[in-house]
Write a structure and sequence with these properties.
- The protein is 5% helix and 5% strand.
- By secondary structure, the protein is mostly loops.
- The protein has a two-stranded antiparallel ribbon with strand order 1-2.
Length: 206
């Protein structure tokens, strides 16, 4: 399988094509200048170190990023539908307005990560660490946060219809004006959580 990584230069749309094992060397070589708008659909990037790399606008449809290090990476406006980021390190990474539908973040570390206005319909964050994460205006219908850690997370104005938070910790979390229609919080820890003016029609907080 081949993957395209754009050249970085003045007003150029040229792209280099990499195949097989050379992809990882190419990624590291480009890391210093960024991988904006890189075409990496289906790429196997498991365990790759891309900390602080700029992947804004990149296409990573169904890419394998299991166990990868993306601490501080920029994935704003990136397309990550169906991507697998299980066990990845993503502290302080940014996903502003990114498309992460059906993406899997099981057991990922996402402390301080930014998901403002991201579309995470059907995304899975089970057992993930989202302490201090920001999901303001996030669209997370049917997302799963089972046993996730959302301590002090900010979900202000997020849409979380039918999302599952069973067994999750939302200690000190902000859910101001959050839409929680039919969301499930069975056995979740909501100590100190701020639920001012939420839309909670049918939510289960038993």
């Amino acid at each position: 399988m081949k993957f395209r990584i754009p050249y970085v230069g003045f007003q150029t749309t040229a792209a280099r094509v990499f195949e097989g094992e050379t992809l990882h060397q190419a990624l590291r070589a480009n890391a210093a200048v960024g991988l904006e708008r890189a075409a990496l659909d289906g790429a196997d990037l498991a365990g790759v170190d891309l900390a602080d790399v700029n992947l804004s606008g990149a296409s990573l449809y169904e890419a394998n990023l299991r166990g990868a290090c993306l601490d501080g990476a920029k994935l704003d406006l990136a397309y990550l539908e169906g991507a697998r980021l299980d066990g990845a390190q993503l502290s302080n990474a940014t996903f502003a307005s990114a498309q992460i539908e059906r993406a899997s973040f099981v057991e990922a570390t996402l402390r301080g990560a930014l998901f403002s206005s991201a579309d995470g319909t059907g995304a899975v964050f089970n057992f993930a660490d989202l302490a201090d994460a920001v999901l303001i205006h996030g669209y997370m219908e049917h997302a799963a946060f089972v046993c996730a850690r959302l301590v002090r997370a900010d979900l202000t104005d997020a849409r979380l219809w039918r999302a599952r938070f069973d067994g999750a910790s939302l200690v000190g979390a902000k859910l101001l004006r959050t839409s929680l229609r039919e969301a499930c919080f069975v056995d979740a820890d909501l100590s100190g959580a701020d639920f001012r003016c939420p839309a909670v029609g049918g939510a289960d907080v038993t």
